[in-house]
Amino acid sequence: xxxxxxxxxxxxxxxxxxxxxxxxxxxxxxxxxxxxxxxxxxxxxxxxxxxxxxxxxxxxxxxxxxxxxxxxxxxxxxxxxxxxxxxxxxxxxxxxxxxxxxxxxxxxxxxxxxxxxxxxxxxxxxxxxxxxxxxx
Length: 136
Fold this sequence. Notes:
Elements: H1 4-13, H2 15-20, E1 23-27, E2 32-37, H3 51-67, E3 76-86, E4 94-104, E5 108-117, E6 120-132
Antiparallel strand pairs: 1-2, 2-4, 3-6, 4-5, 5-6
């Protein structure tokens, strides 16, 4: 089930999500689920989904998870490190990114994201998000 309100919320904060057709299914502090449908315009050669698309989906889910876990007084987050292991090619179907926090601190948040294509694990991403605070 997709929440139109959650999708709108995510797309307003990350306009690239609208460009890529990313939709939001869940947005909680303990878990964020974003997904998109395979489309030929998101591919590289041989009708394989471009790795950058996979990474953008994972980064968006991770960023949303970090935002959902911001400490008091923080105004945002930004990815400062990301590691992606690609485990399989994506040639169709739905791509789902599920992000969960591994560490929530006052200055950084570490997120782990699994990317699945029709239930098959196709990528694993670990990223560190810096916590942004207002400038005085």
